[in-house]
Amino acid sequence: MKTTRLEAFSDGVLAIVITIMVLEIKVPQATEPAALVPLIPVFLSYLLSFIYIGIYWNNHHHMLHTLQRVSGPVLLANLHLLFWLSLVPFATGWMGQNHRAIAPSVLYGAVMMMAALAYFILQGRIIASQGPDSLLRRAVGRDWKGHTSLTLYLVAMLVSLRSPGVGQAVYGLVALMWLIPDRRIERVLSD
């Protein structure tokens, strides 16, 4: 199978995820600007998750450009990633509505950590299907950003047990770490 169907399906799922997230922001009945104040934590949760989904979409897009053909294990690993990303709207909504509570903050971190792990597994399946000299292997190297992200998600979840706000700040830090465009794959593709 060529990669275009996999890309189109994945793009569609991520577009739906973003749409579901924005629908969680309920329009206030009141017309005064003060009615928006309670929505600030909900909006900030949405913004963080929107950034994450955008990062996943961008990096997923680049990663699939290293692929010549799609194998069964790659398809399954991609579905695994999409499963975890499809849970982001739920975790985002719960954390946004309960931004000071421990459980929603920890759950958000668990979903993000599992999505990161699923991305790491997909990356491994692509490398395995292409061989040790694959473009993706050359591009990611030891993947310090991926390993650091997994560690920071775990730290943020543990910190959230004491201080959900600090844990959420660490989630933001991970997003900032990835927000700077990752040019590793672009460099290898242009060689």
UniProtKB/TrEMBL annotation:
Keywords: Ion channel, Ion transport, Membrane, Potassium, Potassium channel, Potassium transport, Transmembrane, Transmembrane helix, Transport. The keyword S-adenosyl-L-methionine does not apply. InterPro entries: TMEM175-like. It is a multi-pass membrane protein. It is found in: Membrane. The chain crosses the membrane at residues 35-55, 75-94, 106-128, 152-180. It catalyses: K(+)(in) = K(+)(out). Its main location: membrane. It holds the Pfam family TMEM175. Belongs to the TMEM175 family. This is TMEM175 family protein. It comes from Cyanobium gracile UHCC 0139. The lineage of its organism: Bacteria, Bacillati, Cyanobacteriota, Cyanophyceae, Synechococcales.
